[in-house]
Specification:
single chain; about 350 residues; Neuraminidase; 4-stranded antiparallel β-sheet; 1 helix
Length: about 350
């Protein structure tokens, strides 16, 4: 008789226990209060400076009369750049921790030869004008320096210490680096060799530093002779596009600094005349003729650091092309397009 009562009591107790375990209004946590916004240390969007250069719609198409290659130290070490002759579309071509220097652009503006120590010592390389297709042309334990294209784009003339570790001699090779042959055989340093328009003569300078004198010889090294009588130092000659004149530097060394200007001389050594004027304070140097022979590009530190300038062949209308805190050096000027001529 107790079983029904016992079951009822047990069932009632179970209901009470389940109710006690269920949620009640007192156990529901209050809604979370939104936190105050956390302040950020990032600058406003309008003050953020991009870390990449702005894009440009101007192509490297030779506007202004061709393309100019040069090297610059603006990014911490020497790298090679290129731009249109009107200073637009300036582009960095090499990017590494080594020195890439003394570029010379081919007559048609399509390729560049340059010197780099990326493989341990100064060697000569060639690349396309967009920075691709880099090819090593020389492989010597000694320095190979100052490469320049021949007017027809088939040869590269350069200087090397491979056979005389104390002095440069002049060499020539095909544009692919084959058939490297020595032209001069002397005991003095011979540098900055540059072929004439007809490829029959070479203008160059004989050292030692800084006592350079301009000379001319046949392309095979025969009949070398002094081009210019001067008490000052003459270096870095460049034949004009028509072969009638040579642009060069005349300089002195004062207090460890090179002071000098760009000069022109007739191909026979007559009528030397000055076409830049730095007032005996700065230096204008490394002249290079435009493809049409009407203008000359050069470097100068007249504003404090070296920048690239251009002028008419008579020295008039001198205009600054680059403007950076770093130094820009060694301009060379190639054809207006890939079919251009030197």
């Amino acid at each position: 008789m107790f079983k029904p009562i016992f079951k009822a009591v047990l069932f009632f107790a179970l209901i009470v226990l389940i109710s006690a375990c269920g949620p009640t209004e007192d156990t529901v946590p209050p809604s979370a209060t939104p936190a105050a916004p956390v302040s950020t240390t990032l600058p406003a969007t309008s003050t953020v400076t991009p870390t990449f250069p702005p894009t440009t719609s101007i192509p490297l198409d030779g506007r202004g009369g061709g393309v100019i290659a040069f090297y610059s130290e603006r990014d911490g070490n020497a790298e090679i750049y290129i731009m249109n002759a009107d200073e637009s579309a300036e582009t960095r071509l090499t990017q590494n921790r080594f020195r890439d220097v003394t570029p010379d652009i081919s007559p048609d503006g399509s390729q560049i030869v340059f010197v780099s120590n990326r493989d341990g010592n100064d060697e000569i390389y060639r690349m396309d004008r967009d920075g691709g297709g880099v090819t090593r042309l020389t492989d010597e334990p000694a320095q190979d320096s100052y490469p320049f294209w021949s007017p027809d784009g088939t040869k590269i003339i350069f200087c090397s210490k491979r056979d005389d570790r104390l002095a440069y001699e002049i060499y020539v090779m095909n544009s692919d680096g084959s058939e490297q042959s020595r032209i001069t055989h002397t005991t003095v340093s011979e540098e900055w060799a540059y072929l004439s328009l007809d490829m029959q003569q070479i203008a160059y300078a004989i050292g030692p530093f800084p006592e350079y004198k301009l000379h001319v010889m046949n392309a095979d090294g025969r009949e070398p002779h002094l081009l210019l009588e001067t008490d000052q130092n003459a270096a870095i000659p460049k034949w004009s596009r028509d072969g009638k004149m040579i642009a060069y530097n005349l300089f002195v060394l004062t207090g460890g600094n090179i002071i000098g200007d760009v000069f022109l001389v007739e191909a026979d050594g007559s009528n030397s005349r000055q076409i830049t004027e730095t007032g005996g304070v700065y230096v204008s140097e490394n002249p290079y003729w435009s493809p049409d022979g009407r203008r000359i590009v050069f470097q100068s530190n007249r504003t404090g650091n070296f920048q690239i300038y251009v002028m008419n062949a008579d020295g008039s209308d001198q205009t600054r092309l680059t403007n950076h805190d770093g130094n820009d050096y060694w301009p060379s000027w190639g054809g207006a397009d890939r079919g251009g001529s030197r």
